[in-house]
Amino acid sequence: MPLQNFGSILNFAEKLESLDRQFYAAACGNSACAGYKALFAELEAEAARHVTTVQRLRRENVTEMILEPVQDFTRASFCEACEGAAVLSASEVLATAKRLEARAERYYAEAAEKLQALTEVSRALKALGKNRKARQAKLTRPPS
User: Fold this and answer.
1) Distance CA 26, CA 21 (A)
2) What pLDDT, in 10s, does the model give residues 38-95?
3) Is the pTM of this model over 0.70?
4) Rounded to whole angstroms, how far apart are CA atoms 82 and 99?
5) Domain 6-138 belongs in CATH node 1.20.1260.10
C-alpha cells in the first residue's frame, strides 16, 4: 500500500512504533530474556515516547497533510514480523529487535527525505531515525 502523503507517513510511523512497543513489552515478560529485561523495558518506554512524538508532529502540522503529495513510497519494505517475543529464545528476540530497529531507522530516513519540503517534520523524522540507530547499538551489548 502506498504512503502518499504526510498523514499516511505519520500514521504508519505511529503503527510501527506501537507494534515495536508491543514486541518489547512481550520480550520483557519472556523468561528466556531475563538478562535483557531492563533493556527491553527501556526500548518499550522509548517506543511509547516515539508514538507521542509522531502524534505531536501530526497534530502540529495538520495543515500540511493535504499539501504535500508523496510518490514512490510504499509500506511493503517496512513490514517486518514482530510476533512471538514472549516465546522466542533470547538470541531470536535480539535478532528480531535488531531487524526492527534497522527497519525503523530506514523508514525514518526515507520518510524524512520524502517530506524534506516540511523542514521541521523532516528534521524530527531524522532525529527519530538517529535514535533508532543508537538503539541498535544497545542491542549489541551483553546483558546487564
Assistant:
1) 9
2) 999 999 999 999 999 999 988 887 665 555 678 888 778 888 777 788 889 999 999 9
3) yes
4) 9
5) yes
